[in-house]
Amino acid sequence: MHTAAPMDHPAATPAAGDADESPISPGERRSMLWLTNVSHAVNHFQGQMVGPLYPLIMREFGFGFAQLGLLVALRNAFTSWTQLGYGFVTPFIDRCRVLGIANLVLALGTAATGMTGSFLTFLGARTLAAAGSSAQHPVGASILSSYFPKTRGTVLALNNTIASVGMLLAPAVAGLLITIVGWREVFWIVAAASVLVGVAYFFFPDRLRQQRPAGTAKRAVLAQSFTSYVRVFRNKNMMLIGLVFMVGAAGRGGEDIQSYFATHFVNDLGMNITYAGFALALLNAGGLGGPMFFGWLSDRFNRKAVLQVSLLLSALSTVLLAHQGAASLALVANLLFQGAVTSSRGTLTQALIADSATESDQDAAFSVYFFLGFFSTPLWALGTGFMMDAIGFTDTFTLLSGSYIAAMLVTFFVTDKRAPRVER
Predict the structure, then answer these.
(1) Residues 6+ apart with CB under 8 A from 322
(2) CB within 8 Å of 24: residues ≥ 6 apart
(3) Hey, is 213 helix, strand or coil?
């Protein structure tokens, strides 16, 4: 029986979404769901496939873990600030067109990465790709929350699960491709996927938002958007959820933290690039079922409690991974387990954000939420890079496991904003 606390702020009543679901046919909702799912998978594929290639790229360009941390930090700082502005963009540009343009920019940045000749040009190309990828999370989550207001936990979990398919395939595909072509050609090949997704978005207009009355003057629309941001920043619950995102998993986690896994597998455990790619694939394979399971639980029970359980298990798995010193069946099992528990945090916090915002504030809410998560990542990335150089993988990730515990403690102050669900 779900016993979420009652609303304590008028801006936290997500009533608009239920009323807006009916004009959209089930077929249109399914099309939007799967387009967004595939887009998210391609987005994560593009980011994750770099991991197995880093040992080769670092060797060719002559940079170490500190520079890798700087690369991740600067890329995420840029992504963070671009994500913050989408709440001002979507009132003027169809959300699907925004994602279409963004995927084409991602393709351009990915292709350009294969043409770089130094650390600085590599950094520039990855930053361009990050600009294209930055729209997927806030705009995609907003679309799904609008189209599926009654099953947000499950739908957002499915979206993250499909994204995990992209993450699962990426290191394995990259590891295999590198045995056939050079690392530069790998970037050129995979850029084509983002081109196809970007073009597809232009054939699927966002009819839900088109049906909404819009202000006739641009100044009035901008004023409404600004007011939405003010409401979001004043919403204590949303700021606490954003803090969970900032702290847990050493910031955003995911592909940024996993950037250090490939080098650990190669340098410390003696794997070759192909086996390291498959090890990362195992990690992402675990992420296929975790978000769906925890999302399903969160639609039926208190989301906050479910989130805390996933964070506690994530801390345990990270400690175990830090101290597993050889390729073994135990490592295989823990990679699957860690993928399942660590990939669930984003699903649950996104659902909590959607529950805490009105339909009119959702674009601003998700922009702020992802801004906060990406804003903290550069600091974590720099710190992790320096720690890896100074104390190695084992001590670094033992310390980072504590970030999950810190996020779990912050979650005690978060409220599950859904209306009570009465079981008959």
Answers:
(1) 393, 394, 395, 396, 397, 398, 401
(2) 147, 207, 208
(3) coil
Domain count, the chain: 1
∠ CA 268-270-274 to the nearest 5 degrees?
Answer: 120
Which has the closest alpha carbon to 144: 170, 163, 169? 163
What sign has the CA pseudo-torsion 21, 160, 366, 130? negative
Q: For the chain, how big is the Rg over CA atoms in Å?
A: 21
Amino acid (1-letter code) at residue 32: M
CATH number reported for the structural domain that contains residue 75 in this entry: 1.20.1250.20
Which pLDDT score is estimated for 402? 84
In a domain, 417, yes or no: no
For residue 189, what are its two tokens? Answer: 């090949």
Supply the pTM of this predicted model: 0.65
Structure-block tokens of residue 93: 């540009």
Total Cβ atoms within 10 A of residue 412: 9
Rounded-to-integer distance, Cα 279 and Cα 332, Å: 8
Cα(276)–Cα(174) distance, integer angstroms: 10
Q: Is 79 helix (H, G, I), strand (E, B) or coil?
A: helix
DSSP state of 94: -
The first and second tokens of residue 30, run together, are 């399914």
User: Helices then strands (H, E): number in the chain?
Assistant: 20, 0
In a domain, 383, yes or no: yes
d(CA 133, CA 287): 20
With respect to residue 416, please indicate whether it lies within any of the assigned structural domains.
Answer: no
**pLDDT number for residue 424:** 41
Exposure letters 354-370 (e unless 16+ CB within 10 A, then b): bbbbbbbbbbbbbbbbb
Per-residue model confidence (pLDDT) at position 199: 92
| Residue 47 CB-half CA count within 13 A | 30
Range of the domain at 334: 10-411
Q: What secondary structure does DSSP assign to 145-209, as a single string?
A: HHH-GGGHHHHHHHHHHHHHHHHHHHHHHHHHHTTTS-HHHHHHHHHHHHHHHHHHHTTS--HHH
Total Cβ atoms within 10 A of residue 181: 11
Whats the size of the chain, residue-wise? 424
Classify residue 422: in a domain, yes or no: no
With contact defined as beta carbons under 8 Å apart, do 241 and 370 qualify?
no
Task: Split the chain (424 residues) into runs of 10 and give each run's mean pLDDT.
Answer: 41 39 71 88 83 81 77 74 73 83 90 87 87 84 81 78 79 81 86 89 77 55 75 83 73 56 76 74 77 81 85 88 76 84 80 77 78 72 76 82 86 74 45
Q: Which long-range contacts (CB under 8 A, 24 or more apart) does 178-181 make?
A: 178/52, 178/53, 178/56, 178/273, 178/274, 178/277, 179/274
DSSP H or E stretch at residue 112: helix 95-113
